[in-house]
Amino acid sequence: MTQVKLYRKDGACSFAPHALLRHLSIPFQDVPMRAGEDGYEAADGSFTHTEYLSINPTGYVPALAVDGEIVTEMPAVLTMIAHLAPDRERGLKLLGETSLEKSMVIHWLAWLSGTLHSLGFGGYWRPYRFVEDNAECYGAVKEKAMKVIKAGFERIDERLKGKTYALGDKPTVVDFNLYFFWRWGYEVGIPMEKEYHNFEKVLRKVEELDGLRKAVEEEGLSLYFESQN
User: Dihedral, CA atoms, 202, 207, 211, 212, nearest 10 degrees?
Assistant: First the structure.
């Protein structure tokens, strides 16, 4: 049996693979992490950030260990999980069924990771990554990052018009990825429900998925839309 281990942090982007693992009923070892002074380390103190770097040289989450091999970067992690599903057909459908759908899944995952996450939220929460040792520029970086975030949400909202899920009437790995971005938008003070009605409609549907709800509970979060009612 394939041995699977997920290194994750509550409320971080690693929520997406956590929810997908639960959705597909894949047995895995859960390794909660926390942000220490030097970087991510085991939440229970069992290993330091330096020791984590020997496991995952990027030092970030999520990291997925599959029979000892480490998979990082969100598009790769979600794709790997879909291939690990006990019900292989069900898992692969989450990567798209037609050639066009499969291409669009890659398109969504690459853009969400490379633009909305890295340039948007990465710039807003960690401006020092862009202008090291120049704190005077942090404000400008955060301002630009917020523009990237809002432009990204506008693009998502337009693409989701008339959709049940991101790619149509069936969920894909993209929907699990979109969910935490909505929560992050709320965290940075954007009035999400007021601005992005198509996005909201899709994620209300996504939040009904059992695996996602289980991950929300395990990470000590609240179901966003239920908590707003």
Answer: 100
Cα separation of 187 and 133, whole Å? 26
CATH 3.40.30.10 given to domain 4-90: yes
pLDDT, tens digit, for every residue of 25-61? 999 999 999 999 999 999 999 999 999 999 999 999 9
Widest distance between CA atoms in the chain? 53
Q: Quick check: pTM over 0.85?
A: yes
Provide the residue type at 46 as one letter: S
Which residues on adjacent β-strands are paired with residue 44? none
Show the tokens assigned to 105.
Answer: 């899944």
pLDDT value of position 64: 98
Backbone angles phi, psi at 196, to 5 degrees: -130, 80
**Topology annotation, domain 93-209:** Glutathione S-transferase Yfyf (Class Pi); Chain A, domain 2 (1.20.1050)
What is the dihedral sign for C-alpha 107, 58, 220, 153?
A: negative
Give the distance, in angstroms, between the CA of residue 172 and the centroid of all CA atoms in the same chain: 13
Report domain extents, the chain: 4-90, 93-209
Q: Is 27 exposed, middle or buried (0-12, 13-18, 19+ CB in 10 A)?
A: exposed
Q: For 51-82, how does the pLDDT look when each residue is reduced to its tens digit (9 = 90+)?
A: 999 999 999 999 999 999 999 999 999 999 99
pLDDT digits (tens, 9 = 90+) for 148-198: 999 999 999 999 999 999 999 999 999 999 999 999 999 999 999 999 999
Does an H or E element contain 148, and which?
helix 138-159
